[in-house]
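Final report, results section. Input specification for complex C-07:
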Amino acid sequence: MKMIRAIVRPEKTSVILSELLDAGFPAATKIDVVGRGKQRGIKIGNVHYDELPKAMLMMVVNDEDKEDILKIIIKNAKTGSEGSFGDGKIFVTTVEDVYTISSGESVL
Amino acid sequence: MKEIISVIRINKMNETKKVLSQAGYPSMTAKKVSGRGKKMSNIEVLSNLIDNGDLNTFEHQVVESITEKDRMLPKIMFMMVVADEDVENIVQLIIETNQTGSMGDGKIFVCDVDEAIRVRTSEHELDAI
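Structure output:
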């Protein structure tokens, strides 16, 4: 299983989550975070902001669903057709074990 | 070392903390998050209930709020990094404490951790946790 952590613009979360739901991937966790990227934040006038508010979407999925989910997130997290700085990053890591608490079973 | 990330009900937080620290695993990080799982409310059943008048006004509002399709519910994300041999035990403790048997109890994820460093002393790996 894979854990997908996508850091995206907060205003894009609702469209990403509803697209994922329509595609049959309802399970997700949303965390509010602040961060900066390669552009070192943004500078407006004389003020430099490097703790930009972002949302982190965390999902743990089966290996075969990973590509579909990444495509959906990338498609919907982009701003404009080309995308722009600050649209975010997606990280994928391996999850060794999953347990569902309500049943106590080791299934997703 | 393994990282145990679990998403649990908010009202189970204190009990989980207590049980884990009594069992000798006091260190943890927790964060308020919002999330949804794969099981959606069965809107048809609930709307039948509303239409048949089996629910009073207050319950109507409750039902409305839980049937909204992509509602995110508040949860606690609970993270701890532990030695490999403790994983089994901790997972069992978390399951026992948080299990109510109905959906929404949460999930536990176990991931591998390559390195851990204690900032104060620069100790590495197991010495650091």
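The first helix of chain B runs from residue 13 to 22. Residues 39-71 of chain B form one domain. This concludes the modelling results for the funded period.
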